[in-house]
Amino acid sequence: MIEINNQYYRGVISINSKVSGSGEVQGYSWCLSSTSTTLIIEIAEDQAIDRETLPLVGYGCSGWIYEQPLTKQHNNIVSFIDTAMVLFRNNKMTYFPAVTCIVAVIYNNCSIIFIMRILSRYFYLYNK
User: Fold this and answer.
1) pLDDT at position 110, please?
2) 23 Cβ contact list (under 8 Å, min separation 6)
3) 19-25 long-range Cβ contacts below 8 angstroms, 24+ apart
């Protein structure tokens, strides 16, 4: 685990087979995660949500998301987080509202909630 603690945000990150992390920025919880191709940082709009509860942005709660191509280099990951936090402080990070309908049905081993999250991102990007 790598600790980050500066005047704007704090948290911890882990770089293994996947990149993960969490912390707080200006009283909001953030979560860092990765897929096979992307680094993703999410910041929950609801300040009552703790960082262990994330990721939820786009389907469980509203908030901000920033994505970049995957890297596993420590300096590049810290730079990615720094960039996201600057965008957040300057109100330039992509905002996603929460999906208002929660469905717990499983269809062909794919959660409807996951599909709704993908659709909310698609419609945001399509209407950008």
Assistant:
1) 47
2) 4, 9, 10, 11, 12, 29, 30, 51
3) 19/70, 19/72, 19/77, 21/81, 22/51, 22/52, 22/54, 23/51, 24/51, 25/85, 25/88, 25/89
| 54 contacts 42 by C-beta, under 8 angstroms | yes
**Total-model pTM:** 0.72
Nearest to 95 by CA among 59, 124, 127: 124
Other C-beta atoms lying within 10 Å of the C-beta of residue 34 = 19
What confidence tens digit (pLDDT) does each residue in 60-114 have?
A: 677 888 999 999 999 999 999 999 999 999 999 988 877 654 444 444 444 445 5
DSSP H or E segment with residue 86: helix 74-89
Identify residue 16 by its one-letter amino acid code.
N
Q: What are phi and psi of 117, to 5 degrees?
A: -65, -45
* Cis peptide bond prior to 69, omega within 30° of 0: no
